[in-house]
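Trying the structure run again after the queue cleared.
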Amino acid sequence: MFGKASIPSLTAIWCRLMLTTMIFTSACSLLENAPRAAQSQQSGQVSSKFVVDDLRIDGDVRDVDAVRARILQTLQGHEYERHRRSLDEIGAKIQADFEDRGYFRVALDDLQGQPVDSEKRRMLVIVHINEGEQYRAGKISIVSDEQAHPLLISEDELRQQFHLHTGDLFSARQVRKGVEGMRQLYLAHGYLDITTTPEFSIDARSSSISTTWHVHQGNQYRVGNFDVRGLDDRTKALLKTEMRPGSIFNQTLAKQLYGQGKAALGASLAFDSFDDVVSLTPHIETGTVDVLFDFSSAAPASN
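Done. Tokens:
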């Protein structure tokens, strides 16, 4: 048997929905687990990675054969490292399938991986699932958490970020996309401190979930100093004409300028992330943010 993994509780599900970064991970499990350890191989017979060969679902699941086939398709064709976090990742994928079909209270237990070959390369994944009630989306409301500061972006525009309508099956994935859409709108208007907090209301009679998002808008920032390093003078000048000191900071624009700078250096670079290059230093007292694009450490990626 290849270990067992604990599955996040309902509290962890709430936590994931409140994330403003839309990376779907079993974050709570990662906090509990020790750092990754190297997996030793025994006389070259045990593979350091495994693939999911089959899936067995126990418990109370409607149309279990179709659910199993759909989830198995998402799990196959991917190699997993032989450590506990891989089971967490597999569990997150299984749970996501249910959460995106309205099973908001789905509970997974006793997730296991059992080898089906002598090299322990192919695994049978076993999980017990209680899918619970299937919920539909109720009303989605968006309000400012400060009475003295009304929403600076209209509720209608913010609501349009959620591709989830009353009566649709409640989808955690669509909720996360909607929250990220709201966040990006505020970042494009200089609100770097934007946070959102959900308030959920479950109507047992209609099996629906209404959500009120409380938005803390924070401070609006203007561009303070803007410096560009590691690019030719022509490209530096071009970027600086697009983001001038005193203008409202626009993170969407900053990402576009990052792309232009990256393109000027060539397609194959040693970094591939906005955060690797762009540093933001906010100054609350002046309402400004210093912006640094530092391409100086960029080098062609080794083959």
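The CA atoms of residues 219 and 249 lie 11 Å apart. Worth checking whether this holds up in the mutant runs.
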